[in-house]
Every structure is written in structure tokens, then in C-alpha cells.
């Protein structure tokens, strides 16, 4: 009897362990716990490619690659510079926060990859194309009007369309060379009220169009937001691209919405969507799809599952975010793809060759705010917790200069060095109230200092904490907790940012020895 109990006990333990191991080998939602919104995904053979929105960042429209739908690596950007205008250049007091290029559409047609997007900043629609999505080069076409949240679609009859708009959705046929609306044609109303499946009281009208064709039917995915409710997926179906379309509610769970459909080589289907999740940003979720009566049915009993029948994630490092020692082999790109500048950079005032192994940022002008500072180099923060650390040489700062490590959003915070009256101080500054307020200060008598910013996004805690170290080993908290908040004026999850800006005289410079990103929060000693 005892032996039987022991055997049963062993069996129970073994079964539990096996189940836990199986779960650990599955993908879990969110797929990417970082700001990767407005997804568009294609599969070419056994390889998936995904584009996303980074708006005012440069370069823009990141392209990511995956073999399993879960583990993604940045491989390209559609453009280095969207356009050179004051708002995108941070010139004359103008900015493109929350603007720049929005939701992109990724397509593959006849051996060519296409990425289309649009920008309220310029009022234009953009189409980028390449034969090699990972290496480029990219050809650019830009035209007016700006087609909001459009879906580029190559139909089987050789015609090319864009579906766009909000609430009332439009369809326009494009010229064969994609240079604009086809001459002699006029955009037509495709669906008069695409929000209707979301109910009679909708706050955010249907937008985020993504059109697919499967088994001879056209399926149009949109998002709407009923007042007092949550972000909602709607689906419209038609037998011809111009309609008529019939609609239904596609998913209403946890506010996970906006995206489309993707299939695996094995014939499994998923909806790729995202969720607003506080200060970390808008984070991707995959949801199983099955087909019933010619309709894609999203979720399990209408719910988004926590686990999926896909491989487990290996983490976001180094595919989406990564450490950088700022050392470069001959012929290597100046900056790895994980980096983006906040707005268009001023390339005359940063260098990785002036002092090999260091990132040098020189002030090129006097500015009045961190948010107007050019050449802030950024990476995504990520959840559930993350930290960024750096070492900075402040030997060549000028009076009035500020340099350091930021958590960037409208309600920003930063830790770094201020030079005033020939003396340097370590400071922590918060912009959470809309005004830069110094919350901590320590005198500094050495030229190299270590800085750290930690983020806690667990259950939308959204707290940032800053530290400094004089030796890179013992860390001391400085200032107060930054209550991070996702604001619509910036419309982006928080970013780690390396910066140097002048408030009095241009020409000073600092040098960053390295930047290291890590999961989790390291307690200060």
C-alpha cells in the first residue's frame, strides 16, 4: 500500500512537472511586453515580417522578423528620415510628438515588399518598396492626400487599392505606379458606418483598417471604442472588394484590438492585436482564430487566452532592445537597429569615431527644454520590469549644460549632470507636472559617473526610479519616484534616452562609454 502511494505520489509529481514544463514551452500573452503598436504582419514562406508605428522617431517604421511568430528581431526600417520639416527636426520650437508617421501596412506582391504609411505632420501618404526587406534599399513614393489608417491591397485582377478613413470608410484605386490616386477615378464610400457592429454609442469610430482575402472573400478588420466600454474588434465581409459588406463584432475582451489575421505554415490561424497597457505603451497579443461559416472567430469562447500553441519567448533582448558597448567593427553600421533618435538627428553633432568606443554627443544650439533637445538616442523600455544603465564622461561640459539618462515621455524624468558656475552636480529632474522640477542634487567631483533608470510596469504600477554610482558597483537612489503616465500628446510608451543639451552656450560635449539594458529591478545597496 505504501509503495502504491509512493508510486502514485511520484506519478502526480511527474505529471505536474510535465504540465508545468509544457506550459513553460508555450508562448504567453502579451507576446511583446513593450511598445509595438499598429501591427501589420505578413508571412513569406516560413518567415514572418512585422511593421509597427514609431511616429516621431528616426529612423521609422521598424521591420521585425520571426520564424515562430513569437521571437522577433529588428531587421530594417522603411526610412531613415520621413521628411525634413521643422516639426520633425525639432526646429523653431516645433515638435512631432504623437504625430510623424502612423499605422503602416506591410504587403508582399510579385517579389516586392511594400510598406505604406501616412503622416499628419506632412499631410502625405507614403509607400516604400524593396526587393530585399532586410537589407533594402527602399524606394520612396509620397503623395497627397493623407489616407488615414489605410490598408494597401493588391487585388487578383491587377488593381491596387487603399481602404482608409474613420467611421465612414473610403476606397481609392491607385495608379499602376502607386504614385497616387489613379487619374480619372474618385474615392468612393466603402462602408457608410463601419462602427455599427460596436453598437449605437461609439466614441472612437472604426479605424485601423486591414483588408485580407481568404477563400474568395474579403475581410476587413477595424477597431472601434464604444462609450463606457472597451476597444473592440469589428469584422466586415464581402464577395467583392467594393462590397456590399456585412459586419459583425469580432472581439471584445480586455481592450485588446486593432490588427488582423495571420496563418502559420501548418494552417493555424491567429489574430494579431494590441492592448493599451499604461506607461509601457501598446503591447501585442496573439489570439487563436478558427473559421466558422466563412467567418474568422477570434478567441476561446470570446476570450483572449494567456497561453498559446506557439513556442515560448526567449525574451526581448537582443532582438527588440539590446545593450551597446559603442564599439564598432570596420564596416558595421554606426548604430544597431534597436536605437532610434527622438525626431530627426543632427548628424554633425554626434559621433562614434571621434573617440572610438564612446558615443559622443555635442550640443549644437541652446534649448529651453529636454523635450526640444536634438540627438537624444532612445530605446524602448519594457515590462514587466526593466532597467537601463550607462557610464558617462562629463569632462567637456560647458556652463548650463545638462546630460544624462532619461525616461522619455511627456511626463519625463532624468538623472544626470548639470554644469553651473564651473561646478558639476548630479541631479534628478521630474517633468511629471509639466514643469521641470529638480528633486535631488549631489555635488560631483569626478569626470566619469554611472547612471541607472529602472521601470516597474507590473500591474500598471508605472513607477520609475533613478540611481547614480561613483564606481559602477554601489548604487544610490536620487530624487523621487517618477509616476510614469502614457499621455496622448506623446502617444508612445516610455523610452530610455541618452542626451546632452545646452541652456547657455553650445559646443560642450559628453561621451557615453556604454548602455546596458536588463530585465528586472536591481535593489540599490
From TrEMBL:
Keyword annotations of the record: Glycosidase, Hydrolase
InterPro entries on file: ConA-like_dom_sf, GH43_C2, Glyco_hydro_43, Glyco_hydro_beta-prop_sf, Glycosyl_Hydrlase_43
One GO biological process term: carbohydrate metabolic process
A Pfam entry, by short name: GH43_C2
Active-site residues from the entry: 38 (proton acceptor), 207 (proton donor)
Protein name: Glycoside hydrolase
Domain of life according to the entry: Bacteria
Provenance organism: Paraflavitalea soli
Family under the similarity heading: Belongs to the glycosyl hydrolase 43 family.
PANTHER family for the chain: BETA-XYLOSIDASE, BETA-XYLOSIDASE-RELATED
Domain Beta-xylosidase C-terminal Concanavalin A-like: 332-517
Magnesium in keyword set: no
GO molecular function, one term: hydrolase activity, hydrolyzing O-glycosyl compounds
Amino acid at each position: 500500500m505504501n509503495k502504491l502511494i509512493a508510486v502514485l505520489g511520484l506519478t502526480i509529481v511527474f505529471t505536474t512537472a510535465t504540465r508545468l514544463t509544457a506550459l513553460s514551452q508555450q508562448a504567453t500573452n502579451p507576446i511583446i511586453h513593450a511598445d509595438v503598436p499598429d501591427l501589420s504582419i505578413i508571412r513569406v514562406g516560413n518567415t514572418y515580417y512585422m511593421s509597427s508605428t514609431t511616429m516621431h522617431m528616426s529612423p521609422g517604421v521598424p521591420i521585425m522578423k520571426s520564424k515562430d511568430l513569437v521571437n522577433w528581431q529588428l531587421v530594417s526600417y522603411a526610412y531613415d528620415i520621413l521628411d525634413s520639416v521643422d516639426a520633425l527636426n525639432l526646429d523653431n520650437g516645433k515638435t512631432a510628438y504623437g504625430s510623424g508617421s502612423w499605422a503602416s501596412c506591410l504587403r508582399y506582391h510579385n517579389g516586392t515588399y511594400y510598406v505604406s504609411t501616412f503622416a499628419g505632420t506632412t499631410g502625405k501618404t507614403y509607400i516604400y518598396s524593396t526587393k530585399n526587406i532586410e537589407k533594402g534599399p527602399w524606394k520612396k513614393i509620397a503623395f497627397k492626400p493623407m489616407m488615414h489608417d489605410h490598408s494597401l491591397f493588391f487585388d487578383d485582377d491587377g488593381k491596387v487599392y487603399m481602404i482608409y478613413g474613420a467611421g465612414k470608410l473610403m476606397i481609392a484605386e491607385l495608379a499602376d505606379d502607386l504614385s497616387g490616386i489613379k487619374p480619372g477615378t474618385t474615392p468612393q464610400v466603402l462602408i457608410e458606418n463601419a462602427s455599427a457592429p460596436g453598437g449605437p454609442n461609439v466614441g472612437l469610430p472604426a479605424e485601423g483598417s486591414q483588408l485580407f482575402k481568404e477563400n474568395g472573400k474579403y475581410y476587413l478588420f477595424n477597431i472601434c471604442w464604444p462609450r463606457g466600454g472597451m476597444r473592440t474588434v469589428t469584422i466586415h465581409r464581402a464577395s467583392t472588394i467594393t462590397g456590399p459588406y456585412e459586419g459583425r463584432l469580432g472581439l471584445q475582451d480586455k481592450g485588446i484590438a486593432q490588427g488582423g489575421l495571420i496563418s502559420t505554415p501548418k494552417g493555424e490561424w491567429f489574430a494579431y492585436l494590441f492592448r493599451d497597457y499604461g506607461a509601457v505603451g501598446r503591447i501585442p497579443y496573439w489570439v487563436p482564430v478558427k473559421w466558422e461559416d466563412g467567418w474568422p472567430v477570434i478567441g476561446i469562447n470570446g476570450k483572449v487566452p494567456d497561453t498559446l500553441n506557439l513556442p515560448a519567448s526567449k525574451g526581448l533582448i537582443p532582438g527588440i532592445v539590446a545593450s551597446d558597448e559603442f564599439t564598432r567593427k570596420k564596416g558595421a553600421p554606426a548604430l544597431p537597429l534597436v536605437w532610434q533618435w527622438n525626431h530627426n538627428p543632427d548628424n554633425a553633432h554626434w559621433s562614434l569615431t571621434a573617440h572610438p568606443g564612446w558615443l559622443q554627443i555635442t550640443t549644437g544650439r541652446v534649448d529651453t527644454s529636454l523635450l526640444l533637445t536634438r540627438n537624444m538616442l532612445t530605446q524602448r523600455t519594457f515590462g514587466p520590469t526593466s532597467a537601463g544603465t550607462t557610464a558617462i564622461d562629463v569632462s567637456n561640459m560647458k556652463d548650463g549644460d545638462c546630460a544624462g539618462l532619461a525616461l522619455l515621455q511627456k511626463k519625463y524624468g532624468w538623472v544626470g549632470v548639470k554644469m553651473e558656475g564651473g561646478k558639476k552636480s548630479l541631479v534628478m529632474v521630474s517633468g511629471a507636472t509639466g514643469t521641470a522640477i529638480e528633486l535631488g542634487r549631489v555635488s560631483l567631483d569626478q569626470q566619469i559617473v554611472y547612471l541607472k533608470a529602472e521601470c516597474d510596469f507590473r500591474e500598471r504600477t508605472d513607477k520609475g526610479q533613478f540611481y547614480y554610482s561613483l564606481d559602477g558597483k554601489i548604487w544610490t537612489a536620487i530624487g523621487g519616484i517618477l509616476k510614469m503616465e502614457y499621455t496622448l500628446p506623446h502617444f508612445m510608451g516610455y523610452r530610455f534616452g541618452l542626451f546632452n543639451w545646452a541652456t547657455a552656450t553650445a559646443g560642450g560635449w559628453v561621451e557615453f562609454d556604454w548602455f546596458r539594458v536588463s530585465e528586472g529591478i536591481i535593489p540599490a545597496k
